[in-house]
Write a structure and sequence with these properties.
Chain lengths: 425, 425
């Protein structure tokens, strides 16, 4: 079922994004309405798209308590351990401001400070993932963002997913609104009577949410728009084919367009993993979609050696890269393009999705060439600080004039000269 | 000429960006042609837009030597001092990878590594600014980017600005192509026979360059698209009105849409600065454009106290903020939204544009609320590293299964379970 190809015949065809013209028009229209009519429009769209008439968007206090009754104690315990791990990992990303003072008395610095207010979009329905809450909120908390507001679509009774509410509550985020879709993004960006505008919006969503985030980008900041999730496994003859198959399937179940690729110099492993994958697939709950993903975007690539396998990995620049080889340390440093590198038999990708501490918001669609996992820096901003001394200006002012005049910027030169003149220089 | 208003009557009207539909169509067409026809299309567009027929795009070795003969020794000396200052300031921004090992034997880490190849756009003609080269290239060099290529449009003889060439040469960037406009951006993003594709494109340009950068965003990374440059001066009665006026004018000369705003509780300073501005303006080389900027976007805002002045500053979130007050240290910490803060009489904004060491690529149009000056981080990428231990998986695996199953992701749970089963857990 999964195709097995030689390295020379392999190229990953990622589909070019559709233009989504119709959807874009709808989204722009929704944003316009929210900007003009605020809560009233938000109420109307929630009626239209979510099928519920809400007087108040804010999730009430008692909904959080109720949510705990609807999840298992094991779930809460596991969530708390995950939170502790994710917090610990991200705390190492904290930044310091710096300053430098020189002998002329000039102080230069870079102030590093948190964003003031961040909005987190949490999908609802069948894609309501508590883990999404952890991964988007914790880096903001660690950065020191003082205000975090969450939005998530309600069901027809006006309720939101209990797992999501528990996750938010565990993190201390209780400013939660029962709104979803493009209208929720517009409300976060421009504000309504109920929802104050934010500085940045993060979190995944469907195509309407993605297009709305693109449309409000500039008015607010956004993290990147995620494409289909992907995995690439680099393995040799020492890898367990059952593990390889299970790990490929764990990404494939995300959707029909999710690439799942094994690259190996071992033809034996290639064939064993392909058979194991077919066998395991029959037992999976999301079998149909997962099978489609494997048929569309799955591949087993047989290379002449590990060198070539790593080359292919760097070309693909996968979101998740698993390294299941005899001597991983010989190869880790050569993997330059990957969102996350999972090393060894026990580092299966779901470990990172849920639990170990790293962030699961990772660069997709080959953007690991230039992008990073979501991290604390995404919730910080920097400001340059300049206190130039009189001595410095008198000593170096003429050079600044030279540079400004070389660019024909006379008023820039004048701002220096007027000071030198006053000091009799 | 510059309007003087009370705080309650002031609001900064930034114009909403035009849709630029016609220009966008032209740009998409250019990109399409470059993708399909490579150098041949690049040659044709250079003939069409720059009026010169080029066989080779690469700037030849001897052009650099010639460029030094066309600039003054004072210019080269000033440039070298500026380079040393900018390098020193940015070196403090270097990042380290980190790793954490726990008692169960799990290693987590974040690898911080430079982008591999960066393209720098340098405008030509009357807007050819050597300082732009320094500000865009030095952070990339400090980050450790191994390949930096520059593009800049040629004149009708096929030559490029000597100041720009000298700046590039001083920084060791000798892979320079004589191409400009949207066609240069397309070539950097997609590659041609001559120009290999890059991972990130930085640098300012006209509307065609800006639209082209937007269009290739996703295929490559870009820094933000700059809007009109702006300045806001917070000053009290101790400020020198001549300095204030000169500094407002130094930003206004950037273009008709550049806001230049004084906010002060001192009506006397307001009036003196307005008169000084009118007087200084008559002496400036770019008088006409500067005057238009002041009439369009200039303002002197009189507030009831400094508290209110700082509030307005935070609302405007200026690119450049000057603080010319008696006790600046009482106020610096309250300025939360600004690209760069210049403190005191000698910290005129051109000091930062050219020389002191901070970057002059700063967040415009109020984006200082969530954006940062160009810095070394813009040329680094991070990769998560996970080596989960067998003991950790055996101990915590069941929690990961709980979390995955709560989200209905059975293949994720299976990837853990298959390992626990094998180990007899």
């Amino acid at each position: 079922m999964i195709r097995i190809v030689e390295a020379k015949d392999f190229s990953l065809k990622r589909e070019e994004a559709e233009p989504y013209e119709k959807e874009r028009e709808i989204v722009l229209d929704i944003i316009q309405h929210i900007r003009q009519h605020g809560d009233e429009a938000l109420r109307a769209f929630t009626r239209q798209f979510d099928g519920v008439d809400l007087q108040n968007f804010r999730v009430p206090e008692d909904a959080f308590a109720n949510a705990y009754n609807r999840v298992s104690p094991e779930f809460v315990a596991a969530l708390r351990d995950a939170i502790a791990n994710i917090r610990r990992y991200h705390e190492a990303q904290r930044r310091q401001s710096y300053m430098m003072i020189d002998e002329e008395g000039t102080t230069l610095g870079q102030l590093v400070r948190p964003l003031h207010r961040v909005g987190v979009y949490v999908p609802g329905g069948t894609a309501a993932y508590p883990s999404t809450v952890l991964m988007n909120v914790i880096p903001a908390l660690v950065a020191g963002v003082p205000e975090i507001a969450a939005v998530t679509p309600p069901d027809k009774e006006g309720n939101v997913n209990p797992g999501v509410l528990v996750a938010l509550k565990e993190l201390g985020v209780t400013e939660v609104y029962r709104v979803g879709g493009a209208q929720a993004i517009a409300a976060l960006a421009y504000g309504t009577e109920t929802i104050r505008p934010v500085d940045k919006i993060v979190g995944p969503g469907n195509i309407y949410v993605a297009l709305a985030k693109q449309a409000v980008f500039g008015k607010v900041s956004i993290e990147s728009i995620a494409g289909p999730s992907d995995i690439l496994v680099v393995a040799d003859h020492t890898a367990d084919p059952e593990y390889v198959a299970a790990d490929l399937l764990s990404q494939a179940e995300h959707g029909e367009t999710s690439p799942a690729i094994l690259v190996t110099p071992s033809r034996e492993l290639a064939e064993q993993a392909a058979r194991a994958l077919e066998r395991q697939l029959t037992l999976l709950p999301r079998r149909e979609m997962t099978e489609k993903a494997i048929r569309n975007m799955g591949a087993v690539v047989v290379t002449s050696d590990l060198e070539e396998a790593v080359e292919i990995a760097n070309r693909v620049a996968p979101e998740h890269l698993e390294l299941l080889v005899e001597n991983p340390d010989d190869w880790i440093g050569r993997i330059v393009n990957a969102g996350a590198i999972f090393v060894g038999s026990y580092s299966t990708e779901p470990v990172g999705d849920y639990y170990c501490g790293t962030n699961h918001v990772l660069p997709t669609e080959g953007t690991a060439r230039f992008s990073s996992p979501l991290n604390v820096d995404d919730f910080l901003k920097k400001t340059s600080f300049i206190r130039y001394s009189k001595q410095a200006l008198l000593t170096h002012g003429h050079k600044i004039i030279t540079l400004a005049e070389a660019e024909g910027l006379g008023a820039h030169a004048n701002a220096i000269r007027i000071r030198l003149d006053k000091e009799g220089k």
